[in-house]
Every structure is written in structure tokens, then in C-alpha cells.
Amino acid sequence: MQSFRPLGYNDKVIYLVYSEEPELARRSAMKLLKKEFPVRDETNYINLNFTTSSIKEIVDEVSFLPLGAESKAVFVENCTFLVKPGRAKPGTGSQKKKEKTVDADLAALAEYCKSPHANITLYLVAYSKDLDESNPVYQAVKNTGKICPALVPPRAGWIDFAQKFLKKYGSELNAEAAGEVVDRVDGDYGRFLGELAKLSIYANGEPVSTQTVETLVSRKLEDDTFVLSNALLKNDVASALSIYHDLNVHNVDEVRLLNTLASQIRFMDLVSFLYNAGMNKDSIARELGANPGRVGYTLASLRSVNPPSLEKILEGIYQTEKAILSGEEQPRFAFERFLANFQI
Fold first, then answer.
1. 177 vs 202: CA distance, rounded Å
2. Number of folded domains in the chain?
């Protein structure tokens, strides 16, 4: 058995890595793991995910070395027990799911972190912008381990990474095309990596142009839906159909598009309600946690629209989604019918 740590090693054997971008947090933690444990197998490496595991399982795993092993790594993903309530990244597991966690288990893990095993390295990975610093485990790791925020890089960093990524696969990506990729993924690090991989396969060693990026990388659905909803509110059905057909090039899911469109219409309804209640643009933006520019643009779009019209649109969206999910109509036909028959 290869020895990864000399006996008696006891320096930074606990790492707490966190980021609001799950893939960024995971990759940062895996980079640390691969550096310290380049060779891993079932005897010296345990991977847990708090979505399906418990704190007690973590405590159990860090409490012993396997027979014949001189070191061990325990990698725990999605540590929502370290996140402030309500701050967990959407889609990474629910805080409510862990409400029954026994306080004694958390206390036991915190106690272990105060005096960790010299030859067991614990990697705790959390998907959140910030953590609960009052948490006893956080406090213990702060004193005996290393807390590593995986910061989302600035736009220039994303562009540089994209260019280096494509270069590694023999393709050239100029700054303009790289910037287009960054703008289209809108801060989604996991999607960013996936789109770069797709571009590298498509390019096959050839240069990647901005036009290629526009063809292969779809814009964020919410942005397209915002443009689509404004076209509808202007009764510009032709433009709405054109936007939908552009989305279809990227195999858009009509049910998801309908849900996103419904969210946009509900946002408009909220803005309308608050504005009629006497609030100005900046106050509405603060109340809804929205971009003031988006609120201002929405208010401009609402000048010729009344609340009953918004309710009528939502009803049309509901009926269209119902027709698709029940199998009465094909998704594309149902959505095109919804747009073609649209009127306020």
C-alpha cells in the first residue's frame, strides 16, 4: 500500500471549500484532493454526498483508518449543514431535508474537527456564496483546518480560461468569441465548462468564430423570454414567432419556456401592483431584489397593458402547457398556436 502521508502529519487535514457555483466548488476541492491523494481506491478514499448521507456517517468515516492503510481521504459534497438557512444553491439539496439532523451529531463532528486524526484528510464542500460562521463545525475548522472560498473569477478571467481551454484542444478562440461564450452562459460555471467542451469537439482543431458561438451556444433562456414577452405585449406576434424559431435551433424545451415566460409575466404583474401602490422604480427593485434597469424596462412595457391582460396571458400559458403535458398537442404546434392566437 502506498503511503500518502508520513505518520504524525497533522497540518491542515481539514479543508472547507465553498462557492455559489457548485461546479467551481467541487473542482477546486478535487484539485486539492488530486494533489494530495493522486492514487485513490476503495481502501483509502470515501466519497459522500450530504443529500443522501448524514453527519453521523461523516463522523464514522473520519474515526478510523482501514486495515493496512496509512492514510485516508473523506470527500463530502453538498454540506448544507454549513450553509445559512435559505442560502443553499437551488438544485443542490434542501435544508428542510436535514431538519431532523441530531444536534449531537453536529457536536460530535465539531469535536472531531477540533482535534482531527493526523492521517485522515477531510474535504467538506458547500455550494453557497457564504456560510454560517456561527456553526460549531465552521468554528472548529477555522482553528484547525483551512477554509477555501472558491471565488467566481471576473469576466476577464473567464475569457482567458476559455481561450486557454480551446487552445489545449488545438483550436483558436479570439477574445470577442470568448466574450460571447461568457455572456451567454451568464455566470453558470458548470454550463460554461460544458459549452467549451462542446465547442472544442465541434471545432476539431479549427478556429472558433463568434458566429460559431452564436450558433452553438444558446443565450440564457430568461433573457430570450424577456425579449419574447415584450414582443407579445407590443402585439408583435411576428417577432415573437421569430424569437421562438431561433430558440428552436437550440432544441428549447417548450414546457420550460412556458414556465419561464409565466415567471416573467408574474414579475410584470408584481411590478405593476407595486407601482400602482405608489412605489418608484428603485423602491420596487429593492422590494423584489431585481435589477433597477429591468424594473424600468418593465414599467415602460406596462404602459399599454392592464392587470387583466396579464391574467389572460397567464391563462393562455396554463392552457398551452396543459395541452402539451396531456399529450393533446405536440409541443411545437401548441406553442406556435399560443403565439399566433395571442392578443391583449
1. 15
2. 3
The Cα–Cα gap between 210 and 189 comes to 20
Identify the bridge partners of residue 243 per DSSP, sorted by sequence position: none
Which of 3, 69, 78 lies closest to 36, judged by CA? 3
- Residues paired with 282 in a beta bridge: none
235 and 333 part of one domain: yes
pLDDT band per the 50, 70, 90 thresholds, residue 114: very high
Quote the CA–CA distance of 117 and 128 in Å, as a whole number: 27
pLDDT over 60 at 98, yes or no: no
Question: Do 20 and 134 reside in the same domain of the chain?
Answer: yes
pLDDT for the residue numbered 7: 37
On the CB side of 172, CA atoms within 13 Å amount to: 4
Q: Which of 201-210, 307-316, 330-339 has the weakest average pLDDT?
A: 307-316
Residue 149 has pLDDT above 50, yes or no: yes
Name the H helices within the chain. Answer: 22-36, 55-61, 103-114, 136-144, 155-168, 175-185, 189-203, 210-216, 221-233, 237-248, 254-276, 281-288, 292-301, 307-325, 331-340
The torsion of the CA quartet 154, 155, 161, 165, rounded to 10 degrees, works out to: 150
pLDDT at 203 over 80: yes
Looking at the structure, tell me whether residues 109 and 195 fall in a common domain: no
